[in-house]
Amino acid sequence: MKSMYEWVLNVFILLISSTGVTALIKGIDPAHPPYQTMTGQYGYNQCGTSASRDSRCQNVYINGPSDFCFFGPPKFAGVSETEREAVSYCTLPKHGSRLIPPDTFTGLHFVSTPHYVQITGRGNFTKVNVPADNDGGEMDPNSFDARGNPIGGVVFGNGKQFEQWTEFLLPDEFCMRACYNGPDAWRYCNHIYDLMACRWNIPGDYGPGFDSCKGKDVPHPMGEYKLANGSIHTWHQEDPGNPPQPGAPGKVYNCSNITPPGSYYSDGRGNVS
């Protein structure tokens, strides 16, 4: 028989993962963040402007295809094992984070749509502490206790906070989507499908090449499917049977080539090997 504590915890987890939950970490000014946004935080949110290899910065910035970050393990360990302590890895040395090493990405595709920005790609993420045999994991602003994975981690873009976002990191694949604040943000950045990984949650281009595109939203957010009668069905991981196929990616246009991340790694301004 389950204890009262286990029962309450399970109810709490169900409520947190239910449709439309609001992230607790919100209203953070990227120009003036607190030292930490959450108690029990591994790192900090006042990160300064100097990159370092041992930074514990837990701010991610998605300002554009040449200025972005993602969360990764602070040490060589599994993504799920370290998701509560994940730190930021950035393309530029101005965010007080760790820097993305050269050749981390073998392909990267940045897409901006009306409801979100997303980055999809492949690479060698052992360069950012992910073991080659790791199953990967998801990071998001809520987690089972609503403190976030990582605890206190925040995502900013062009002077504003993205309250809803989701990221998957594997040894050879990466995806992240950050949604503009609004009533549909939770749908396009839903983070209750942690077992389904990148291509199911964030359909897009995972092929070679480096580009930035404008795009249309995906036809349906993750987990939502249009039935033959025209109604929308929402699938959940707990549902019996096989999961549905991934949804279609949104159409892209106005694409242009971009430079692969890593050019600042060893130029004396950050993570010099």
UniProtKB/TrEMBL annotation:
Keywords: Signal. Residues 1-23 form the signal peptide. Residues 233-273 are annotated as: Disordered. This is Carbohydrate-binding module family 13 protein. It comes from Puccinia coronata f. sp. avenae. The lineage of its organism: Eukaryota, Fungi, Dikarya, Basidiomycota, Pucciniomycotina.
